[in-house]
Amino acid sequence: MFPKAKVAGPGGGSAKGCVLWFTGLSGAGKSTLAARLSEMVQAREHFVEVLDGDLVRQHLSQGLGFTKEDRDMNVRRIGFVARLLAHNGCCAITAAISPYRCVRDEVRAMVDPARAEFIEVFVNAPLSVVEERDTKGLYKKARAGLIKNFTGVSDPYEVPKNPEVVVHTGDETVEESAAKVLDFLHRRGLLADQ
């Protein structure tokens, strides 16, 4: 059984949904942060779903490669599902590199501001930090030329110009980064107090 969503903000009615769009380099901590934030939002009895980039590629975007066109299509698909969830009162958290600013802006435009909010969260970790982490060994392979079109190495990452929230996962703990996002949601009236 699903928990009942608490009313967020004055005036009664259902809690307004949101799309929390986490963007950043591979290994920046998007999935880890999304998982922790999901727990924190659920603890406040608000509906939440995480759309993780790796899982979406397996189930929703299977067959897409890593050309710019395929990456853009993947991001649009994630955005479409996130919008559906958010328009129905859910907090949809996405964790995908989404390297190109133009398609991120496209997804932002999909979300009807009367029904949900789009919140871009820049998960900022320097290339040196994510290469040092390299939990999947992808940067090492990219540097060796074994992976083509790899974001941050042989393909660009376009830093968000005006994200609503910036977390610095090279310097902050997961708890500190999650607290920043949670504080923003509270200030926007998107979450009830615990």
UniProtKB/TrEMBL annotation:
One of its GO terms (molecular function) is sulfate adenylyltransferase (ATP) activity. It comes from the Bacteria. Catalyzes the synthesis of activated sulfate. The gene is sat. Its EC number is 2.7.1.25. Pathway: Sulfur metabolism; hydrogen sulfide biosynthesis; sulfite from sulfate: step 2/3. The lineage of its organism: Bacteria, Pseudomonadati, Planctomycetota, Planctomycetia, Planctomycetia incertae sedis. HAMAP family: Adenylyl_sulf_kinase. The keyword Phosphoprotein applies. It comes from Saltatorellus ferox. This is Adenylyl-sulfate kinase.
